[in-house]
Amino acid sequence: MRAQDLFPIVGVGASAGGIEAMSGFFRGLPQPFHAAVVVVTHLSPDRESLLPDVLGRLTPMPVETAVDGLTVQSGRVYVMPPSMMFGIKDGRLTLTALGEGVREIKPIDVFLTALALDRGERTVAVILSGGDGDGTIGVKAVKEQGGLTLAQAPDEDGPETSDMPLSAIRTGYVDYVVPAGDMGTLIAAHIPDEEITALGKGDDPNSVEATDDILEEIHAILRRQVGHDFSGYKPSTFKRRLARRIRVGEHTGADAYLARLRTDAAEAAALFRDLLIGVTKFFRDAAAFDALAARVIPKLFEGRSPDDVVRVWVPACSTGEEVYSIAILLREHMDRLATPQRVQIFATDIDERSLAVARIGRYPRAYLDAVSPERVARHFVVQGDSLVVGKSVRDLCTFAPHSVLRDPPFSRLDLISCRNLLIYLDLETQERMLPVLHYALRINGYLFIGMAENVTRFEDLFATIDKRHRIFQASDVASTVRLPSMVGNAWADLVPSARIRPKGALARASLRHAVEAEVLAEFAPAHAVVTRTGEAVHYSARINTVLEVAPGPPTHELAAIVAKGLRLELRTALREAIETDAVVVRHGLEIGAPGAVQQRLSLTVKPLTQRPNVEPLFLVVFTESALRNEQRDVQAEIGRDEAVQRLEDELAKTRERLQGIVEEYETSLEELKSSNEELYSVNEEMQSANEELEASKEEIQSVNEELHTVNVELESKIESLDRLTAEQTVLFASTGIASVFLDADLRIRTITDAAAQIFGIQASDRGRRLNNFAGPFSLSWLSEDAQSVMTEGRTIVRDFDGTDGCRYRVRLTPSHVDGKMCGLVVNIICAPPEDRD
User: How far apart (Å, rounded) are the C-alpha atoms in residues 437 and 447?
Assistant: First the structure.
């Protein structure tokens, strides 16, 4: 085992102004600390950083500025220098100078990604105060390699700016969210001192000792709790991930951890997530994306006109790797077409901070090692040690906050890529979500899911295209699950905890409900409940008496499946009820086959009581006007002329209604087209404006961090200047020499205590001319000699007998600052009377 693998390396990411956060972190490190610490901040490329000096006063560990090729050693702190691309390889720091005008704006992501790839499970990522999403990608990379991740929690000391830690926390990859001062103890406990000396004794120091019986029971708990069998999982990997959960939970061993699993479903879910953590990069499971490119992408464009739009949805898109992978495949196919259709990729997630990272599309170069050099050159722009997704790919993607479990889905989609989301949901939620995905797809649209997911319980909704790579196609059948937004609180039915269950029901209430249901089934007229769009959400027991099987694709629109004699009247009555919010009744309607006895009906459309935040519903009732055996007599009594007149009147009314419907339809169609174009244009403008705002925010944050850095440097310089001034004062006092510093106008700038006593000068006299003061000897010669000293740059010495009996020697010396004459220095040596001989 290499020497550099015997201790962990802690990567600390923070803004340059987060001094308080770094102070709390370093003061909380236990001593001795058996790990190396590397500090990465956002630094101004134009200024020398004083951060090593500042950190040196916070920790007893040696602090030094990193240099290229330096081998990282345990118990030391290394600080990133400015104007460098910072990384690590084989335990040695790597620094490459940035080009002129180039600035790496995501240095924390870059370094943590490189550290994770180099150190693996011996990596610790710490995210402190900072003002953007830097560190989010780095934390994901560390967790994917099995490392430990921590983010600063708010306390009295910060974080001053919470964007960086919050962005990392929302990824779900942070192990501990604690104040900065508590992090050192947790890191030290994660790998105890005694473990360091024992690392060389086994082939896998990160695994855990567990008997086969314990492992079998853990497998059984996971099967029962999350519905997945890990008994075939690679034993060494399973034990490493198990050991990690044991250390994070501070358990004494596998036995104690098993005892917790038996009673803690949340811990079972956490172990499940750790076991499923893979390398979340571009083109994860490359073979699956190859299959998607070969079997699905070309079919999305087949048989379409140039005006058609290919619509794709990527729910739970996180920081955008999956979205851009699909966008690259689509762009590459579009470039091969003579007249490609327009493509819209809707990328959604509940975490707006992850969406902000995705919109920027900036990733460390090491994070894209699965992307071929050809694709990097074609679809990415190099900026420092990061790669930015090119505009031609980014323009295909629209990022928006959205909950697939709570918000209405997108519709008329050609492809949904929902990879590795279902595995985090319980079985009941999965059973409600898959029909929703089927509803969102066009007929024969495609569903692309993760390798550990399946749709076996919904084989009637999805046909298998590629079972190995989890590609399915929406079948041409109607989903049997109603969308929750139609019958209650929006999408609450998709979340089991959101459904309200009665605490209990009395037997009498149950009997009453049973009787009422029986009466409705036997004696009530046929009825249905529809939405504003005419979509049926409820049918009564006898609704089949007024329904007909309509040719074409199955539909739930009531007006399309009722008997022909009712369709036009139902549509007009429903529209009138929607506009007036009143009960609408139509009498004298007839249904039945031509030449057969006609059944006369009355149609009633009544708005139901509307509840807040619930889509309006309408009750449609079909009431029989007379018995069938009575209709024969009625029809026999109607004269021929009267029947013809009635039919002509009905035909005229029908024509008027039809003409009105056609005109309304054409007007609505034009308005919808215009609105759609305007909305698409506004969306593009908003997306462009959002990107500009994100860029401006980053620039402002960068300037703010630079100002923080300059402020720290100025404070340090002021402290040094104050210390120097104090030392100078002590020096002058200790020598006992009388010295006066004069400017070019012979005004006093600085004076020692000895000189002040000779001339009777006080502190408030600074700025007055020296020859205005009376001393033991005359100063009438001073102006002329001072002019000679400053003009000729020579030294003049004079001796005087003072009125106090002392002998004085006065030396005038020119004073130069930065090569310029700025005045002179008067040094006075006094010889008492007894020393004159």
Answer: 8
Determine the Cα angle at 481 with ends 476 and 483, to 5°: 105
What pLDDT is stored for residue 150 in this prediction? 92
pLDDT digits (tens, 9 = 90+) for 707-736: 888 888 888 888 888 888 888 777 777 777
What pLDDT score does 296 carry? Answer: 94
- CA 316 – CA 403 distance, rounded (Å): 8
For residues 607 and 617, give the distance between their C-alpha atoms in angstroms, rounded to a whole number. Answer: 6
The residue ranges of DSSP E strands in 246-405, in sequence order, are 309-314, 342-349, 362-364, 380-383, 386-389, 397-401
Instruction: Please classify residue 143 by burial: count the beta carbons closer than 10 Å to its beta carbon, then call 0-12 exposed, 13-18 middle and 19+ buried.
Output: buried
Would you call 246 helix, strand, or coil by DSSP? helix
Rounded distance, CA 629 to CA 622, Å?
19
Please choose, from the candidates 81, 86, 75, 85, the residue with its C-alpha nearest in 3D space to the C-alpha of residue 115.
86
* H or E stretch covering 656: helix 640-735
| Residues 58-85 as b or e (16 or more Cβ within 10 Å = b) | bbebebeebeeebebebebbbbbbbbbb
Give tens-digit pLDDT for 592-637: 765 556 778 888 999 887 666 567 888 999 888 754 444 455 455 5
* Cβ–Cβ < 8 Å for 601, 522: no
- State how far Cα 829 lies from the chain centre: 73
Q: Is 311 helix (H, G, I), strand (E, B) or coil?
A: strand
- Supply the DSSP string of 571-637, one letter for each residue: HHHHHHHHHH-S-EEEEEEEES-TTSPPEEEEEEEEEPPPPTTS--EEEEEEEE-S-HHHHHHHHHH
CA–CA separation, 436 vs 413, rounded Å?
A: 12
pLDDT (tens digit per residue) in 748-767 = 888 888 888 888 888 777 88
Single-letter amino acid, residue 816: H
pTM of the model: 0.52
The C-alpha atoms of residue 340 and residue 331 are separated, in whole angstroms, by 10
Tokens 């019958």 locate to 487
Q: Answer yes or no: are the C-beta atoms of 528 and 539 closer than 8 Å.
A: yes
Single-letter code of the amino acid located at 377: A
The pLDDT tens digits for 51-109 are 888 888 889 999 999 999 999 999 999 999 888 888 999 899 999 887 776 666 788 98
Pair 404, 316: CB distance under 8 Å: yes
Query: In what side-by-side order are the strands of the sheet with 617-624?
Result: 536-539, 526-531, 617-624, 599-607, 584-591
Provide the pairing of β-strand 536-539 with 526-531: antiparallel
CA distance 455 to 473: 11
> 526-531 and 617-624 as β-strands: parallel, antiparallel, unpaired?
antiparallel
pLDDT in tens, 549-576: 666 666 778 888 888 778 888 888 888 8
3-state secondary structure 714-747: HHHHHHHHHHHHHHHHHHHHHHCCEEEEEECCCE
- pLDDT computed for residue 309 by the predictor: 92
Give me the DSSP letters along 470-514.
Answer: TEEEE-SS--SS--GGGSSSTTGGGSGGGS---S---HHHHHHHH
Q: CA–CA separation, 220 vs 208, rounded Å? A: 19
Residue 343 contacts residue 309 (beta carbons within 8 Å)? yes
**For residue 740, what are its two tokens?**
């006066």
Helix, strand or coil, per DSSP, at residue 751? strand
Tens digits of residue pLDDT in 119-175: 888 899 999 988 777 888 888 888 878 888 999 987 656 677 778 888 888 777 788
Which amino acid belongs to residue 582? A
Q: Which residues contact 223 (CB under 8 A, 6 or more apart)?
A: 229
Q: Are 345 and 318 in contact (CB under 8 A)?
A: no
Cα–Cα distances in angstroms (integers) from residue 829 to residues 395, 637, 680, 766, in the given order: 82, 145, 88, 21
User: Residue 386: phi, psi to the nearest 5?
Assistant: -120, 160
Q: Give the C-alpha separation, 9 to 834, whole Å.
A: 73
